[in-house]
Structure formats: structure tokens, C-alpha cells
């Protein structure tokens, strides 16, 4: 981007990268704020708020903007009655679907900044953009604080940088095509100067992490498919809750948008459900494949689809992470980066022992990485809905990590061990097809 000296089309002074980063960041903040304001204005236009003063609606929009960026809101209410004591809680359940809005805007900004920067100058644009976005968050948190809803200023300044920073870095990486160009370091040349064992270990761990991501995405995709099937099966209950609320066209649309915002959270809940660890819908509750025991739930249509009571065949869902692990094990075999097996074969001549040991270690490594990634997803998707029973919502990260790691690890061992047989079967099919085509 260049600053124009006049309207003749001649280029003037180049725009400083930090200023261009600040402009891109400001655009992302303003656009995401307008998207948040739109449904609030729609509800206000239909007289859906008891307090319709402009300052109240503006603070509500600012609080919603902070929430979709992962900033927790500190709630404080006073119960009914003269002797009622104040209650306090934290609203920290982030709608990950709406968090994609600033993430995608930042992804676009990262690509634009990468095109405008040299390899060793991108940090200037990123630093300027992050400083401006932190100022937006700090200002919004300061303006939107009220006695009923508190906002931590430090969290309001820095937590929005997580989705925005990730979006910009990933967008810049997408534009540059490699991490080496992004950070200005030739990683290939640096690795080539390292020892053979170091290169083997790096390739082994890199492929194991990729295989863990394969297992995680396969499990998440299958869990999301099960969630969709569950919604279809219980669609009549979901519609009944909608009809009971009688929120009107605008209220129903806003409610649907809010539920769509939590759809990625529900997909992570489904992942924890299929792993057997389950998830909580309130203090002391648990929903899992072997049964569901939850208390009264709020009148939210999507919650009507939660499976209830004992499930005779719920244990079948535990196969999903194991199948995903088998897919990851097969992928690792095809990648051909099992250097630990090669190193172990050099040290120990008993092939039957080295093959079994390296396969078990591979299952532990990939299963552990998958469990860590699943724990991160569970921690991101869970939180508190404020005050009362619903202060615990979502899967427990540690429990989810243990269940996913164990099941994926078992699947990896099976998939890697069965991989050679699958490869031979595929080769035989190709030979048969080639022979048939030749005839």
C-alpha cells in the first residue's frame, strides 16, 4: 500500500509498515464490531429490550464483542427479596463459531501485510496491528464496564490478540508459502548442518505431530457427523422448544445465530462424548456414551437433542477415536518417517522385538500428541455460563486427553501393523485393474 501525493496516479512516500498494520487491524476490529451490533439492532427494532437506551445497547454490543474474543465477563446479580445476597460468577463460555469472524478478518489482514512486507520486515506490520487491536480491546473493556458486568482490563487488552494473532500469522504463512520466508530463516539450511540423528528425530516428531492432527481431525469430523445425526433424530424436540419460547421471527433468528455460534463448541463436546470422557452441562452432571445424568436445562432448543438415560449401544461410539488412530497409523506408514524403528534396528538385531517396540512407541507418541491437542480443544470449548448450576459446561481437558490418547494410541498400533497388508491389497487391486484394462 502506498500513500498518494496527489490524484495523478504518481506514487508518493511508501506507507510505513506499522501504520499499514494498524489500519488493517482497525478495519478488522470495526467490521467485527458491526457484525456483532447487527443482531442487537434487529432485536431493538422489534422492542425486544426492556432498557433500550443507546448507551445500554452500546455497552451490550461491546460486551458481546469481548466475549467472542474469549474475554470473560464478571457477572454480579442480586436475588429477589429484601434479605437476598449478591451472587457473582463468570461468563467464560466463548462461542467459537463467532470467534471465527475476527480470526478470518485477521487472516485476510495477514495475507495483505505479507504481500506488502519483505521477509525481514513483517514483524513491523504485525507489531503495529497487534498494538492497535490491544488498544481497541482495552478501550472497549474500559467503556463497557458496569456494576453488573465487570471486565478485566488486562484480559480485554491481550486475550483478543489470541484469535487475531493466530489469524494474521496463518494468513501471512498462507501468502508466503513457507515458515522460512515468514520468519526470515532458512530452516532447510539450518537443519542440513545438524547431525543425522537430530534430522531423524525431527522428521520422526514432525510426522508424528502431523499424524496426530490427522487422528484429531478424523475424530472431530466423525463426531460432528454424529452430532448432525443426533440433531436430525431429535429435531421434533428442538422445534417444540422453539415453539414454546415464541420469540417471534427476529428473536428466533437471533437465537439461531447464537446457537450456530456455539456449533464448534458442540462439535468438541461430541468429540469428548465419543471418546467416553463425556462432558458436563452443569455442576454435578455428566453426559457420555454410557448414559446421561443432568439436571434441569435452560430452554435452549439445541439442548433438547442431548441424549438422555442409558444408551444400550452407546459404547459403540468409543470405536471412533480408535478408527481415527488406525487412519493416522496408516498415514504414518505411508509417510515413511519411522526413523526410530530404523535406529532401533541398528542397535538391536532381533527384528521381531524392534518392530513391536517401535510400533508401541509410535502409538504412545501419536496418542500423546492427539491427547494434548484434544485437551486444548476441550479447554477452549468449555467454560462457565455465569451464575448457578451452569458454571461448569463442557468436557474436562485432562479426562478428555487421557481417553483420546489411549484410544487413538491403540488405533495407531493396529493401523500401523495392518498397513503393509493394506498396501499389498491396494497393489493387487491396481495390478488386477491394469490387467483387465489391457485385455
From TrEMBL:
Keywords for this protein: Membrane, Transmembrane, Transmembrane helix
Transmembrane regions: 25-45, 91-110, 122-143, 149-172, 208-233, 253-275, 313-333, 353-381, 401-419
Domain of life: Bacteria
Name the record gives this protein: Uncharacterized protein
